[in-house]
């Protein structure tokens, strides 16, 4: 009978497919900010300035002083799978840039209105052009521009009612964006970052290029964090080839916080590794119960072919070869550092 008839399968329209995919890459305003800042870093910028209106839903504006975008490339800039970073699949093994799949700008044009202003070295003027659904809305217009690129993302999720509603009810998106920029700034100490709300006179993050990581941490998180940090390093080799190399700063027994801060970069990518985070937290709880919520900055370098960067649509999690071994070695290093500092302190107070 008719109730047994299977529903007919049809092909989705490309615009529907693209919008669904875009909703996965750009989950919240902060994911858009991350993608755009990574593009600025990939373009060798030394200064990145962010302006946010209405938690990023009204406007995300990121201005950099990087190499800019060629006029000839503007027509395909926001199409899906257009990139200057990857050519053949094998490039993924050695890719140094944070982007690689030409998905971010395209995604934004499917869920927002994107305007790009850019100028390349040696040009007298720049170009401005707006995009929707992957394509230019008009020919690029000549305009005055300073070095680099400015991306404006307006009315994010204007065509995704449910997403817009749930985000409207949460007021913490601006805080998430500030937190993200702080993390980038701790790692990229040669780049100056700023972030402010649209119309605000004061920036909520503002860093200047420095050569000292501790100074960077001080200007971002304050002296109350930077004065209570200890340097940690660890590395491991396997018959002369590198397995991993870690350098970082971890808080000592004087640092008391409500929650753990873990700023982790693997091969210069801002990522999360819940296994490592947990392993470190366990050590603090056991060794420094009063300071059990640490501040941790770590930069881990691995052979690029040991990192799979393509496991998550937002590139937030990466998977590592030898992950268990690496986590264990770092855990042991942190443990002995804490025990050592604890006994020194006990020794000092005894005197
Ligand atoms: P991907 O970063 O994966 O290549 P995107 O969609 O993020 O993909 O960007 C597409 C291309 O646009 C990049 O490969 C790059 O050539 C160019 N681009 C994007 N943002 C900038 C920028 N701020 N400065 C210079 N070039 C940029
Ligand atoms: Mg990118």
UniProtKB/TrEMBL annotation:
It is found in: Nucleus. Signal peptide: none annotated. It comes from the Eukaryota. Residues 217-339 form the DNA mismatch repair protein S5 domain. Coiled coil: none annotated. Belongs to the DNA mismatch repair MutL/HexB family. This is DNA mismatch repair protein S5 domain-containing protein. It comes from Coptis chinensis. The lineage of its organism: Eukaryota, Viridiplantae, Streptophyta, Embryophyta, Tracheophyta.
